[in-house]
Amino acid sequence: MSMTRLMTNAISVEPSPARTPTINITYFSSINKSANTITQSNKHHIGAHQTLSIVADDNQHLDIDNLSHQDQGFELSDQERYALFDSQGMNRDFIRRHIRQERKSYTQAEQHQLSLIACRHMLAEIQQKNAQTVALYISHDGELATQKLIEALWHIGVKTYLPRIHPFSKGNLLFLHYHAESKMVFNQYGIAEPALSVQDIIPVNKLDMIVTPLVAFDDKGNRMGMGGGYYDRTLCQVIDGKPLAVGFAHDCQQVSQLPVEYWDVSLPIIITPTRRISCI
Description:
By secondary structure, the chain is an alpha/beta fold. It is 25% helix and 19% strand.
């Protein structure tokens, strides 16, 4: 694939059609490993737990199975407990600053624990959808860490891809194959991304799933990023749900309502350490 062709693949953001999504929220429950009966719905979560246990060297320090997530909330520390931020009447910049501060306020241990729990649920989602080509991201600015999830996907043979800023088409992303030998560089935002190699590029329509970072979201699937529009331009390329875009965020990143602009692209699924929110 030539660089000239890469330039022609860039698209501009178009307004998203208005829709009224059907919202379903699933609260994750603790896995009882001693149970004799395993339902079809939690087989993927058990497999994900076992896979992540293989790649997490310090997994023995994490009391994952005692973190039970129920409808009334889940029993964690005050710092970790989900609380909806009332954003009504607030502008995007204020919401963005507030949520970035919130997600960076976790201690390193809390970030590690919550990320591993969320990765277990995301891995189960990937396995349930039988996704074989998955785009992820390298965590930055308090985002849920994905490295253990990436290693788990390598372990089960799922190809992983990372975004990098397009060298010629301003505001657009390329996705490159990411593996243990990938050379990484830092972009102008201080975010690690793969060094450019044309052979490693995958077109967006060849991905099965894009796990998207975000700053804030609401229960209608509305997503707000860092403000550059990179993922909005990428998600505009989704056709008939292919690739499937799945948001990945801390619970504290949910707000009561996001002010939506015409260029914003909503997400059909968002996964947090405690919940799976479907907005289809």
